[in-house]
Amino acid sequence: MSETKMKVRFHDAEEVEEFVDAASRCDFDIDIFYNRVIIDAKSILGILSMDLSQALTVQCYGTNPDFNRTLKRFSAMEA
Description:
Blueprint: E1 4-8, H1 13-24, E2 30-34, E3 37-40, H2 44-48, E4 56-60, H3 65-73
Domain HPr: 17-74
InterPro entries: HPr-like, HPr-like_sf
Pfam families: PTS-HPr
């Protein structure tokens, strides 16, 4: 099983909705976390409860080409 970690950033609820929709089509677990808070990435309310002004870390426990494109779209490049 392949694990991927990437930092992402969301600017509004519509972006979170798009991300959760893509995550929900995956048949493996995806977590999103910041500091010590870990949320299921398929939970729109969970993600919206996080501090969206910060870069969040996504950890995937599998791969899916469509979801990988979504991850790249929201990738937060480190300055």
